[in-house]
Write a structure and sequence with these properties.
The structure holds two protein chains of two kinds. Chain A is mostly beta strands. Chain A has strands spanning 4-9, 17-23, 26-32, 38-42, 56-58, 61-63, 70-72, 88-89, 91-94, 97-101. In chain A, a hairpin with a 2-residue loop joins β5 and β6. Chain A is globular, with a radius of gyration of 14 Å. Chain B folds into six domains: 3-110 and 244-305, 3-Layer(bba) Sandwich (FAD/NAD(P)-binding domain); 125-240, FAD/NAD(P)-binding domain (3-Layer(bba) Sandwich); 326-400, Enolase-like, domain 1 (2-Layer Sandwich), CATH 3.30.390.30; 410-536, Arc Repressor Mutant, subunit A, CATH 1.10.10.1100; 550-626, Sulfite Reductase Hemoprotein, domain 2, CATH 3.90.480.10; 634-788, Sulfite Reductase Hemoprotein, domain 1. Classes of the chains: A mainly beta, B alpha/beta.
Chain lengths: 112, 818
């Protein structure tokens, strides 16, 4: 069984845009940067930040739409004085497709 | 005894291999050279100068017929190889000749990729690959009024376009990505390149999808884009990429992936067969630039001779060969957490330089406009050098180590002499410099002598910079508040420079104002976007990715990630039909909360993001549009019932409120803008704490401005009293426009008035009737472009559909039975 799942094309996300991926592990925000890098992080940091797919993206950071925390998309760490971290999900690109780790399926036993 | 070497393909890689082999071991080899093109090896990189007329074909021949003759190479040009028999070790040519080999070198290069658009096989659709293609393009230039379209805004496509233009052809470049050469350049450098090409008359269309090639009598006539645009052309050049040409190798049963698999010795899966050039795949990579091909050629020659050698992939760099467009790119320039950028911009010279540093090493570089030191920087990348000791001055290149730091005055210094610095008093840059040279040594002195900065004061920062530029150390710059850490400029300076410098796109603004980050941050981007929305209605394309979420999806985000929806009710007036439609929507979408707002309208709260377009569709059917309750822009006009119903009412306050809202809805401003019209001084509509409030009295209308009822609580001040509704409308529009054009982003009117003074506002609007009219006219002009219902655009026309739909849903995948 492949360790990665195809969740769509890079072109499905506009540059500097983001879209939501629904998973058994919760909602995940998938970002495409101005330079066509793709990142997947948790949509919410419960009680502190989110929904991050709605934030403004700059470089490889996103600014939370609620309280303006800035998160680094590589590590999930909040920048500056804020302390917190969101989960970052492993993914890679192949032929313009976005493949995300099966870890997003959590404990569910999935055949497809 | 001499060994037989057969080479398939006389390109640059095999040509170099041949030179190396003959030089080191020529006496031991009989060489036969096949080439599908009817000529020997020439420098393909130089086709662009041939196309543009700067060189001729003869100038770019690498190996002449005489050279081959002298070296004893048996040439079979214009003859293809039909098949390879690996067991017999022979090749059969298309003429039927069978030749035996001891070693075979496959250098079949690559084929241009032709997008299989309908009409791609029409006459007049060509690639840009060889001398034949080049001759076709040169031939087109001889036809008066010829037009060409180039699909592909990469290296090759742009060289083709520039060459065609140099031949007098009218050229349009169609590129599918958002900026040119996206694999080599970032957005800022892509912007400069596009500008340079546009300046020389080449039309550039980015983010453009080709749909079909239209023909007439079997010949190309035009390119049709997805959006319906037709680009007429006599020739269509596809320059979208190359694919390794592996056909003959594949037919012979060699291991082939993307290209012909080779090991570090350039051997294929058959030890008697080697391969070099664009047809090979080494360690997962294929090659399109010349430097690695030459390395491969040297290794292949050593392997043939029997010497040890190994091909190693190295960093490569790119330069565009278009005269007047100096650009350079090398290494990896993607952003990263452990990476830092050093950005240098010189707006006057159109220079952009960006270095990417990781762990004290230079790992990537993008230069535009000045590439003189590029080889030095490329050396630092290739050699993995530690640059920590020279980090501070690195960007200035090898000869400037220890030079002066970045100049924050560059943007104002670059403005032309006739650029208007003080809009209030019509004072241009040269006037101010003359004033300073004539003895004005302080801001106040300049104000007193030239009038610049003496009115609203918004240009004071720029005047101080001019003082500093002109006087040098004699003038001490006061400290100021900058927009954010991406710039040394203040909001006022940025606004003035956008207008004075004609900046109409985000990359242009960041380049021309010397931004220190590649694409800004969440503080400066929304501000820049607003300043350009305000300065260039109908010209600037609103950048949704630089807006806060509420303005991007046209609803108010709530703390649980749901949204609220507020339809517009002009003047707070509604109808049973509208209420019914709202009730139906609330039922249909199970809206958890329906609330009446303070602005006299109805708020539907708790709506899921993906339901927004469907709700807007239903509300739109009932004639309702967005209430823009989320906008830094016009919100509501609150009214009382006025003289129509109320025994105290002096005027039709409801009617005037509707007229005002009808004229002003849709406008964007530095912050939200709320109005009220109340029918008598009893003030039931609470007009005296609004951004603009109108109190009706027997003799007319009192126009009050600068109220606040938020964190600050402030009563409005009287701007003017007027006699008619028409005047009230004109004064209101003029005031809104003055605020829109002058205030700092995120300042409500009261903050702006505190800064510029109510007296100045009165001078502009009350005392100067001509200016008032001009302000109101500018507002109404702008409204032509912004009075578009954003809900209808999304619910009916499908704009920004990606915002509302999830990318994928993995929660309902089939689950295996235990």
């Amino acid at each position: 069984m492949s360790q990665f799942i195809d969740i769509g094309s890079v072109k499905d996300i506009p540059p500097r845009g983001a879209r939501v991926l629904r998973t058994p592990e919760g909602e995940i925000a998938v970002f495409r940067t101005a330079l066509d890098q793709v990142f997947a992080v948790d949509e919410w940091l419960p009680g502190k930040a989110g929904p991050l797919s709605n934030g403004i993206q700059h470089g490889t950071s996103v600014t939370d739409p609620m309280y303006n925390w800035v998160f680094d998309l590589h590590t999930g760490h909040a920048q500056g004085a804020d302390e917190g971290q969101i989960r970052v999900w492993d993914l890679h690109l192949r032929g313009g497709r976005i493949l995300i780790t099966r870890d997003v399926l959590g404990a569910a036993k999935v055949v497809a | 005894m001499k060994k037989n070497l057969i080479i398939i393909g006389a390109g640059m890689a095999s040509g170099r291999a041949l030179e190396e082999l003959l030089e080191q071991d020529g006496e031991n080899w009989n060489v036969t050279l096949f080439n599908a093109e009817p000529r020997g090896n020439y420098n393909r990189l130089m086709l662009s100068p041939v196309l543009s007329g700067e060189k001729t074909y003869e100038d770019i021949i690498t190996h002449s017929d005489a050279w081959y003759l002298e070296k004893g190479v048996s040439c079979r040009f214009g003859e293809k190889v039909f098949e390879i028999n690996r067991i017999e070790q022979t090749v059969t040519s298309e003429t039927g000749d069978v030749l035996a080999y001891d070693k075979l070198l496959i250098a079949t290069g690559s084929n241009p990729f032709i997008i299989p658009l309908p009409g791609h096989d029409l006459e007049g659709v060509i690639a840009y690959r060889d001398l034949e293609d080049t001759d076709r393009m040169i031939g087109l230039g001889e036809k008066p009024g010829a037009r060409a379209v180039v699909i592909g805004g990469g290296l090759l496509g742009l060289e083709a376009a520039a060459g065609l233009k140099a031949r007098g052809v009218d050229v349009t470049v169609v590129h599918i990505m958002d900026h040119l050469m996206e694999r080599q350049l970032d957005g800022a450098a892509g912007y400069l390149l596009r500008k340079a090409l546009t300046d020389r008359g080449i039309m550039v269309m980015c983010a453009a999808n080709s749909k079909e090639i239209l023909g007439q009598d079997g010949h190309v006539r035009a390119l049709l884009l997805d959006d319906g645009t037709e680009l007429p052309c006599d020739l269509l050049v596809m320059a979208v990429g190359i694919r390794p040409n592996t056909a003959v190798a594949q037919a012979a049963g060699l291991a082939v992936g993307k290209g012909i698999h080779v090991d570090d010795q350039m051997q294929t899966s058959d030890p008697n067969i080697l391969s070099v050039g664009e047809c090979v795949e080494h360690d997962g990579a294929v090659f399109g630039l010349v430097a690695p091909l030459y390395d491969q050629a040297k290794v292949a020659a050593k392997t043939l001779i029997g010497d040890q050698a190994a091909f190693v992939q190295k960093e490569v760099s790119t330069k565009l060969k278009v005269t007047g467009c100096d650009l350079f790119s090398a290494g990896d320039f993607a952003d990263g957490e452990t990476r830092e950028d050093i950005v240098f911009r010189d707006p006057a010279r159109g220079v952009y330089k960006r270095l990417v540093i990781e762990n004290d090493k230079l790992i990537g570089a993008v230069f535009y406009g000045d590439t003189t030191d590029s080889s030095w920087f490329f050396g630092l990348i290739k050699d993995d050098e530690d640059i920590s000791a020279m980090r501070d001055t690195l960007i200035f290149g090898p000869s400037f180590q220890g030079g002066t730091p970045l100049d924050p005055m560059a943007a104002v210094a670059a403005l032309p002499d006739d650029a208007e610095i003080c809009g209030c008093n019509g004072v241009c840059k040269q006037d101010i410099i003359t004033t300073i040279q004539n003895g004005a040594r302080t801001l106040d002195a300049v104000k007193a002598t030239s009038k610049a900065g003496s009115s609203c004061g918004g240009c004071s920062g720029l005047v101080e910079q001019l003082l500093s530029v002109t006087l040098g150390d004699e003038f001490a710059m006061p400290t100021k508040e900058t927009v954010c850490r991406c710039t040394d400029l203040s909001h006022d300076e940025v606004r003035k420079l956008i207008v004075a410098g004609g900046m109409k796109s985000m990359p242009q603004a960041m380049q021309d104002m010397n931004w220190t980050t590649p694409d800004g941050c969440h503080v400066c981007r929304p501000a820049l976007n607003y300043y350009m929305v305000c300065a260039w209605p109908g010209e600037y394309e609103d950048d949704g990715k630089s807006r806060f979420i509420n303005e991007r999806v046209h609803a108010n985000i709530q703390k649980d990630g749901t949204y609220s929806v507020v339809p517009r009710m002009l003047g707070g007036i509604t109808t049973p039909d509208e209420l019914r439609a709202i009730a139906d929507v609330a039922d249909k979408f199970k809206v958890p909360t329906v609330k009446v707002t303070g602005g006299q309208r109805i708020d539907l709260l708790g709506i899921k993001k993906q339901d927004l377009p469907a709700i807007w569709y239903d509300l739109g059917k009932a004639g309702m549009i967005s209430g823009q309750a989320y906008a830094k822009g016009l919100r509501t006009v609150k009214t009382c019932v006025g003289s129509e119903h109320c025994r105290f009412g002096t005027q039709d306050s409801t009617g005037l409120g509707i007229k005002l809202e009808d004229a002003m809805w849709g406008a964007w401003s530095p912050h939200k803008f709320k109005l009220a019209v109340t029918g008598c001084p009893r003030n039931c509509a609470e007009a005296t704490c609004k951004d603009l409030g109108i109190v009706c009295v027997d003799s007319g209308y009192q126009i009050l401005v600068g109220g606040a009822a938020g964190l600050d609580l402030l009563e409005t001040q009287l701007l003017a009293q007027v006699a008619t509704e028409e005047e009230a409308l004109e004064y209101s529009c003029a005031f809104y426009q003055l605020y829109r054009e002058g205030a700092q982003y995120l300042h409500r009117p009261y903050k702006w008035i505190r800064k510029v003074g109510l007296d100045w506002v009165k001078q502009q609007i009350v005392e100067d009737a001509k200016n008032r009219k001009a302000l109101a006219d500018r507002f109404l002009h702008s409204q032509q472009f912004y009075q578009v219902d954003p809900w209808a655009e999304r619910a009916v026309k499908g704009k920004d559909a990606h915002e509302f739909e999830p990318l994928a849903d993995l929660t309902n995948l089939p689950v295996a039975a235990e």
